[in-house]
């Protein structure tokens, strides 16, 4: 995983289409049907907001059965590049980082004296991420988790559970281009005996008198 900031050229992205679940695999890394790794390509996306343009490119996921082989576990490795081109923001000062508070409507992002970019995934068990997860976030009915010391993310989900998985974030202290890139970020899902879905999110909060929050969602995809 890497992050960068520059004032370089714009990263091109095409608009994200309708939120159909991406379930068609175009590659299998193993010929054994029971242990096949499924490659899921995902579309690029772009969202314009006050003072910011967010784009996501090169996103894909690789889905594998869990080594626990209990029917309730599976593993996803996700990759992608999220870029925020910020044209207007006060030059804030980064304050103490207490983490996202999961307050209603925040999408599990938070600001601490500066504007901020946060990217991650929404993961749900036996629930449609296309609509219900976003509604749940507005009511504060979801939980936030992040990577452990080894860089792996472990989720325990029951039927109807939704969790926000924060991959990384970037403080925005002045106008410019900010990005978060991640490669094969591992997410382990346990306890979900039914179908599971996930979708990427990138949220940019701009502080100041004209506070704004712009969120780009990715296409939902099946984790099995």
TrEMBL record:
It comes from the Bacteria. Keywords: Signal. Residues 98-114 have a biased composition (Polar residues). It holds the Pfam family MspA. Gene3D superfamilies: Porin MspA (Ig-like beta-sandwich domain). The keyword Signal applies. Residues 89-114 are annotated as: Disordered. Residues 1-36 form the signal peptide. This is MspA family protein.
